[in-house]
Sequence to fold (959 residues):
Amino acid sequence: MPDATQTDTDDPAEPTGDDAEPTAPQPTLEGEYDPREAEQRWQEYWLEAGVYSYDDEIENPDTAYSIDTPPPTVSGSLHMGHLYGSTLQDFAARFHRMSREDTFFPFGYDDNGIASERLTERELDIRHQDYSRREFQEKCREVCQEYEAEFTEKMQGLGMSIDWDRTYKTIEPRVQRISQLSFLDLYEQGREYRKKAPAIWCPDCETAISQVEMEDADRDSAFNDVAFELVEAGSEPDAEAVASATEERPYAPPTEPGDDLVISTTRPELLPACVAMFVHPDDDANAHLVGGTAKVPLFDHEVPIYEDDRVDLDTGTGLVMCCTFGDQTDIEWYQAHDLDLRVAIDASGTMTDIAGEYEGQSTEAAREQIIEALDDAGILLDHDPITHAVQVHERCEVPVEYRVSKQWYVEILDRKEEYLAAGREMDWYPEKMFTRYEHWIEGLEWDWLISRQRDSGIPFPVWYCADCDEPIVADREDLPVEPIEDEPPVDACPACGHEDFEAEEDVFDTWATSSLTPLINAGWDWDAAADPETGIGPATLDQGAFTLDNPELYPFDVRPQGHDIISFWLFHTVVKCYEHTGEVPFESVLINGHVLDENREKMSKSKGNVVTPEEVMDEFPVDAARFWAAGTAVGDDFPFKEGDLEAGERLLRKLWNASKLVDQLAPIDSAPPGSDGTDSGSAAEQPDLEPIDEWLLARQDAVLESVTEKFADHEYAKARTELRTFFWETFCDDYLEIAKQRLDDVERGALSDGTANPAASSAAYALRTAHRNFCLLFAPILPHVTEEIWQASYGQTTATDSLHTTDWPSPTGQTADLDAGETALSVISALRGYKTDSGLPLNADLSAATIYGDVAGFEGAIGDVMHVGSVTSKDGEAPTTTEIVGVNLDYATLGPEFGEQIGEFDAAIDAGEYEETDDGLAIAGETLDPDHYELVREQTYDGEGELLEADGATVIVEA
RNA sequence: GGGUUCGUGGUCUAGUUGGUUAUGACGCGGCCCUUACAAGGCCGAAAUCGGUGGUUCAAAUCCGCCCGAACCCA
Fold:
């Protein structure tokens, strides 16, 4: 932990008394902004004051904004992905907390499952096999608790507006109950079944796992060409095909009994498990083998030879052995051809008695010995080392096996269309991510395997009849149950009357619980006394119903998720919640990309390019990191760039300094009523505004509207840029520079004694209104610095205890001539350019400027800011000599009308062959309507002063 | 191997009913201590929009192919 996060002893955030309500610290705008001190002070205050606690009493779903945060696995420390993902969620949370009645922003820890078991084993250097389930679970909780506490502290240090009273752990009893209720409900609905079938198996963790828990890993291996012995062929060989294959292939096709039948395998230890051979239907040279048999070397059992188009003709020898089980194709063949089971590898990856003398060996050891034995016997015809991708368990990186075992499944393949439709009902940010979900569902081939042979996890609430294997499920009232310790709810088997039972020892897949977070967050439960008609979801029993403690939360407004895991996590959640409630659990999905290093490469320990949140927080304010996080389109991966954080830091400083200036120019106790935030601008108290002030507020209205829209659409990068540009360039560089001149010392004095002139009152009002709105608009992205400024400026005069529970601003409704304002700014810009070009300082006095153009009402402002003695504006053309030097065509309208003639126009313009007539532009035999072109003129001026051209105006300036 | 997304000044990025003059930031060069901020202000240089072929009067934008990257699924 960096000790710099410790506060000074005179920290104003310290609670003043035992039972006193926390009071907001009272910062001032003195000196420089110190983010390190201020950020921690506010984080502590926000927690103490309960600024983020969700108001339970809300009933209208439309006024509550609910976020279903996916609980992180607590198996490690916080990384940049957590920082980035949570910050995006926090933008949404803070924006909606201000613009709606309240926001529900919970937090969960996923401490249930293999990840936390492995963590515990690693941390305590123990093996789960050495403990009872209960003992081991205790140890898991102890270890996880430490990690959770650390995680919580770090999340709080990032200023997340999470309601920490709304947290859950996936292992806690309430969640266990929900998880078991979910199992029972799906079982009652006939959506779950238990079946003995091949399943993906991790021999290290000794459990079944699902497809999604596998990943590819490159491993060294070898192709071993092994000779089987042909016992008999199925039919007469095609002599011609055999002859040509003998030329082209490394091994001649076997034709007579006793001939070598050569296969190529990377897993010779599966020879004892071989149950069949396969030939491709198009393989004429081997077609005669089909229907025959072959003898497995070393183990000497005979296996049948079949044909199947799943044989890969491009690799190996064209002949394939099928074992129990080497890969998924073996399973398909086992099912399609009704093959035997020969189990040579047990649950722990050890060879069984079927492997004969290799019994008791590990698969790796058996492989080496078998290769040696084959070589000794002269039937290892080739050994070719390769590196290839094997499927490993993502948690332990051990290659998986396929084993037949009894497992529980959730049926999903029959409802793919419905789940697809459910996906379409949600708004996807960004939209393109829906395609990924769509393809994923379309490609599903297996039902969802939910049972795991592990210790830490939520048990299945099931017993089986010891005689007939009938499943007995627990009563809903009794949940959560632990079948190993608890008794089943019946005395005799309802199917056969037998009175002994066996407990189900398996636990749920982590995802079976992780996919229930919307129900956990909304307080889903079974109420035996409830009327089935009033419950949530399809009624499966005559009595009682499922209910929600906070029905206004469901469906949740948004589900955030990293793009790498949307497929299965999001999909499973949609499936389960949809089945339980009949509704899609989310209105929208917000998908974030990955944080890359500054060279756009994935951060990884092996590359040594990992940047940790701790390192970032050590060097930069939290608000600066948030500014960076707001910097790209949602869904895109983006690089970690220090430059962006430095830019964020500069923005904090600019906000602070600008606030200081606003405070000097329009001190809060002398500002006109209605502009201090207590009552934001009721018309009666608003002074008559000068054009420049109307213009600023009208511009801010437009920005407000646009930024609000962008926040609502999760377009944080655009909101950030638009706000920053308007604040920095328009407010600070332009408006504040003008206001400085208008509110000089004399006027400020007049403001405080109530004798201010209307222009000063107008400026002070606009300054305050705009400034207050900037605090609010920046609040979701920069919560700390805006709170500090807002409390320093308006904390005394408002009732709310935090900027973050203040209402989102609404437009002031000012109208102004925005075009004239733009023209005025471009005139100012031209005058700046003039000073720069003439080598004059920007505050050099100029005697006069004459503006030909519409800057109605802004002359004074221009004169003030550019220090021009006299500014006058005139209608009409400037007294210049103009020369036509070219033509700008409006291609958008000319194109459709004239088509390829446009080329002729362009050529004529280049050659100077055109003429303006009363009817329009005569060119290339046509006369163009004045709407379709604009003449480019060059002005020259030989009078007093110098000519400047600005957008929409011409200026004559005199030094 | 299949799919999805993407490629714009040195770096990051805006930019689709196609409209000729491509946005901004960081960085870079020059000037300015103007009484909030020099960690600031002003001015400027810098991209033939991955390559190529096509559609079109007109392409960063639409289509084909190629190159490169990331992710998802086999």
DSSP finds 25 helices and 36 strands in chain A. Residues 716-742 of chain A form the longest helix (27 residues). The CA atoms of residues 921 and 928 of chain A lie 5 Å apart. The two ends of chain A are 61 Å apart (CA to CA).
